[in-house]
Task: structure prediction
Amino acid sequence: MRFGRRSIRVRLLLLALIPLGFVLPLTISVLAYWGGDYFNQLLVTKVRSDLAIAHGYYERVSEGVGGSVASLADSARLARVLGALPRRHDKAIAAVLNAVQQEQKLDFLYFLDVDRSRADARAWPVVASALDGQAKTATEVFSGAQLFAISPALAERARTPVLVTANARADQREVEVRGLVIHAAAPVHDASGRLLGVLSGGILLNKNLNFIDRLNAIVYPEGALPFGSAGTATLFLDSVRVATNVRLFGSTRAIGTRVSAAVDAAVLGEGRTWLDRAFVVSDWYVSAYEPLLDSRQQRIGMLYVGFLEGPFVTARQHAFAAIAGVFLLAMLVAGVFAIFWARSVFRPIERMHSTMHAIEQGNVDARVGPLSTPDDLGIVAAHFDRMLDRLQSQASSLKRWGESLDAKVAERTAALEQAVADLKAAQSQLVMNEKLAAIGQLTAGVAHEINNPVAVIQGNLDVLRDLLGPQAEPVEPEIKLIQEQIHRIRLIVAKLLQFARPQDYVGYLEPVAAGPLIQDSLLLVRQLLKTNNIAIEQHLDSQRQITCNKNELQQVMVNLLVNAIQAMPDGGLLTIAAEDWDAADMPLGIRLIVADSGHGVSDADREHLFQPFYTARKPGGNGLGLWVSKSLIERYGGNITIENQPGQGARFVVWLRLEPQGL
Result:
């Protein structure tokens, strides 16, 4: 009785608390999924706008450099100097250029006369554009020699040791000597409009800390990022950081470190803008990378802005924890309220429970009786007592009816047993279909995951051979061996995919005669026949041709022949036959028969013989041969059956229709 009371109380409490217990995890899950996704979208939108601001500032700086050079080229100050003095080796020109270079904060500024600028135009499209009368500004990559020719100090400033960086693409370089330069050129004319030459200038971005710090301050001013996050900005020459405010440790900037391989492939390799989280030197950042293009529209580097992801993730976790705490508190309050409120429900239910227990013990006269609470439970109790009265009067009649029902039950039982047998058969087929589907998915996944590294190995092997050239001859046998093993892996992957998606590998269909097919198959296993001392008996009585893929049907025959040979390790007789398959005097197809004189197949093995990964030969078999063969034949609308007498050999029959069905 005590257990009964406790059971009722527990059920009522669970009835009140389970909905809250369901709502809490559901709400948390929805918030975690949708809220987290929306939160990530907000972060991506934020970093996209940051990249737009950084791009705008970079464009303004480029326009400022171009404007400074163009203004000087069009200025009367330069025209007077060029008109009054010889243009070659003129100290006055150098003085004017040096003064403007200092005023405009350019790293270099020089004048090329018409002859020199025409030679230089072959190297720089901006100079060629200036020769055509159009001022132009572009981001270019200067070699170490070109920087040294302009100024040894610029060459030294551009020189950057390339540091080993986690997650970066492999690179053998130890030092980066090239320079990332905003390069501008403008035509210079005399008073009559005659072209005198080209004025060329620019700024070197390598280790230009003023530029990168100013860019970062514009994109991420103080207080722009909540939760204590920090913003960063970087300029890359190819994949190497040449100007950045990202720190390695302390005040040391991460100049010379490299971008991760994933970002390298997406931005520099494919030319896409990266808007996602990325690992930057030592931490995860919400990052934006866009490619930098030179005057030839070649990708030469990247512009990056981003901010620490960790503080935002922590804030999101705290918010979820607060919501969970509120729900837990609500459940606690609701539980306390449910306990006090449920007391008025416990007592009537306990009386009804006691009455039912007494009736179960044989006291058919037990009743609930009148209750002091005129509520719904009181009405239910009164109905319950009336129902017990009716049940008692009907019990005797039900007993009589039960006897008559026994006969009908026995009749129905037989039908039910048959239905259960049919259900078990259908269930077994369903389990088999699920196993095959799982095998197909697993095989396709494995084949896909193998193909990716094989493609990388093949690509890098081709690059290795091209780069080494004649120097690869000493290791040519090893390279050839690698190539052969790659081809072997691809063949294995192709067979795995054939297991996973056989419908995608239906080959060329052609008329195939049974006689030549059997002879070709015997030729493939002739060595096994000789080794095992097997005699062959052939009965090729069918001249019909069937439409199928010859290679697939040959694969089935070879598999059956190999199984038959392996069933006779001490020698024996291998019988092969081809017969017409007719029904109601109508030609349906042919039967291909492979029989051995071995020990036959046991009933236990026969039940699972055509299931994948089941083999009666342990060890040595993988259990796929008969399954694949049966799948191929069934794909053409045929079937494979086994006629077996243990101790007298096994006889496999391949039923093939003249025309395939179901393809």
User: Anything to note?
Assistant: Confidence is low (pLDDT under 50) at residues 1-5. The longest strand covers residues 572-583. The two ends are 68 Å apart (CA to CA). The chain is about 55% helix and 20% strand.
